[in-house]
């Protein structure tokens, strides 16, 4: 018996300004949709007995019609192939207000699709296999459910959980509603525990791991492998399947302190020249740059080096000089960028991120003028 462990697919995710030339849709939304289809192509080719989706199927609580149809199409494909799938609600799928209801309810109507979105522990049986699923819920309730989670008499028993754990190298995503639990809550008697929430593939305990996301959803994920796991319960063998993604590079940080403009310009150009730009998403971080030095840089020629990139983010952290009045343009640039970076990383419900972005930038611009 083999299980596929997938998660954090975030269908409907959007970022940056670039739109896809064919469809006019946000390029990153198209990328995530493509990654989602590739994921299901791979699963159908591998033919596991059960698929476990460990949460954050959609990027938002109220997915767009477009995101819904992308997901629906792949779930129907899996249903036709008679491969069952359990969908666990994560923190991006759990409404903060009860009245919002869960979009997961709709999927109950598809044969072989088992959405799990209400509090407590849910037990699902697939022949010899028992799956116990713990959706995102109130922390106290979740801890209690995990405490009483014991092995029964099934040949194979696995768990599904969407949460963060303390003691990992990078354990917080900084989201307001994320859960951070003690690793001791993970029952080591289980054959496998499929975790969702962190976007990097990583092992937590001998039997518990994160499969990560299927695309790089923030610069903190640059350079990570993306894909999923197949676990053979009988042979106790784990297979990691890597999926193709759009290349993402985070360059630097370069420290600008004590450098002159010409020297820094060359250093930044060299850094940008060190990676393949065509179709990539690139960030270059420059720290401790005095505002005068920042203003003397030729930003346009740096941008020209990344002409073929899907997105270039130049992140200048301006040195705070206590005795001088900070340049207005430098402050504006920094705040502008700060806001866009922040927005690209937070879940937004019900309204378009692009609208928020435009309005936010307008407010910042107006504020600076005043
Ligand atoms: Mn996630």
Short description:
The protein has 370 residues and is an alpha/beta fold. The chain is built from eight helices and 17 strands. It is elongated, with a radius of gyration of 23 Å.
Task: Explain what you see.
The protein is of the alpha/beta class and 370 residues long. It is built from 8 helices and 17 strands. The strands form 4 sheets. It has a 6-stranded mixed beta sheet. The protein has a 6-stranded mixed beta sheet with strand order 5-6-7-10-12-11, with helices on one face. Strand 5 and strand 6 form a beta hairpin. The longest helix is centred in the N-terminal third of the chain and has 20 residues. 36% of the residues are buried. The site of manganese (II) ion has 6 residues, from loops.
Describe the structure using short key phrases.
370 residues, Purple Acid Phosphatase, chain A, domain 2, binds manganese (II) ion, 29% helix, elongated
Any idea of the CATH topology of the largest domain?
Answer: Purple Acid Phosphatase, chain A, domain 2
The percent of residues in helical segments reads: 25-40%
Globular, elongated, flat, extended or rod-shaped: what is the shape? elongated
Order of helices and strands: EHEHEEEEHEEEEEEEEEHEHHEHH
CATH superfamily of the largest domain: Metallo-dependent phosphatases
Largest sheet, strands/sense/barrel:
6 strands, mixed
State the CATH architecture of the largest domain: 4-Layer Sandwich
- The overall pLDDT, averaged over residues, is 90
Task: Give the DSSP E fraction (strand runs of 2 or more residues).
Answer: 15-25%
β-strand number:
17
Bound molecules: manganese (II) ion
Q: Class of the largest domain in CATH?
A: Alpha Beta
Number of domains: 2
The protein's oligomeric status is: single chain
Which structural class do the helices and strands define? Answer: alpha/beta
Question: Distance between termini?
Answer: 66 Å
């Amino acid at each position: 018996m083999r299980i596929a462990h997938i998660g954090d697919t975030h269908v409907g995710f959007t970022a940056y300004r670039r739109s896809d030339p064919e469809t006019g849709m946000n390029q990153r939304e198209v990328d995530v949709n493509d990654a989602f289809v590739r994921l299901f192509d791979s699963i159908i080719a591998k033919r596991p007995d059960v698929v476990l989706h460990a949460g954050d199927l959609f990027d938002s609580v109220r997915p767009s019609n477009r995101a819904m149809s992308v997901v629906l199409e792949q779930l129907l494909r899996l249903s036709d192939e008679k491969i069952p799938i359990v969908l666990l609600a994560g923190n991006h799928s759990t409404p903060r207000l009860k009245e919002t209801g869960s979009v997961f309810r709709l999927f109950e109507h598809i044969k072989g699709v088992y959405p799990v979105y209400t509090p407590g522990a849910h037990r699902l049986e697939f022949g010899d296999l028992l799956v116990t699923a713990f959706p995102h819920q109130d922390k106290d309730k979740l801890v209690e459910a995990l405490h009483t989670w014991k092995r029964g008499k099934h040949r194979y028993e696995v768990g599904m959980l969407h949460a963060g754990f303390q003691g990992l190298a990078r354990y917080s995503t900084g989201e307001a509603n994320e859960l951070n639990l003690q690793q001791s809550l993970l029952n080591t008697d289980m054959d496998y525990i499929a975790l969702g929430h962190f976007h990097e593939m990583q092992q937590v305990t001998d039997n518990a791991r994160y499969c990560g996301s299927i695309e790089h959803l923030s610069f903190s994920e640059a350079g990570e492998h993306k894909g999923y796991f197949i676990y053979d319960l009988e042979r106790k063998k784990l297979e990691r399947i890597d999926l193709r993604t759009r290349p993402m590079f985070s360059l630097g940080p370069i420290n600008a302190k004590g450098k002159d403009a010409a020297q820094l310009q060359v250093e930044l150009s060299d850094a940008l020249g060190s990676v393949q730009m065509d179709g990539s998403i690139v960030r270059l971080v420059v720290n401790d740059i005095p505002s005068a030095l920042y203003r003397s840089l030729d930003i346009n020629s740096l941008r020209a080096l990344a002409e073929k990139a899907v997105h270039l983010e130049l992140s200048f952290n301006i040195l705070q000089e206590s005795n001088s009045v900070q340049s207005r343009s430098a402050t504006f640039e920094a705040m502008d960028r700060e806001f866009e970076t922040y927005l690209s990383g937070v879940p937004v419900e019900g309204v378009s991120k692009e609208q928020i972005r435009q309005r936010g930038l307008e407010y910042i611009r107006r504020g600076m003028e005043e």
